Amino acid sequence: xxxxxxxxxxxxxxxxxxxxxxxxxxREYRLFTDHWATRMGEFNDPEDPDVxxxxxxxxxxxxxxxxxxxxxxxxxxxxxxxxxxxxxxDDLGSEVNARIGxxxxxxxxxxxxxxxxx
Length: 118
What we know:
By secondary structure, this protein is of the alpha+beta class.
């Protein structure tokens, strides 16, 4: 692991991790909640510290279940924020459980960097 790596720790079900390994899943999603905004966002506005000013520069995702019985490290190629609209649902609605008006983080995944999954 490179010292410059910034790791985003994400719980995940094993069935989705296996989809990543097979190349079937290339994005991960998290709703824009206070929890995920705090984990993924930077808040550097001195005038309003509650406003997210940027997304942290994560380089890899570390996926695992809550009991940490397995792990999967994957390159992050981008993290974007969208407000879900009909066009988003038409394009990506089969991949994510979201409703029109939801804010959502879209984490684009690159190559698998390591795993203990078989």
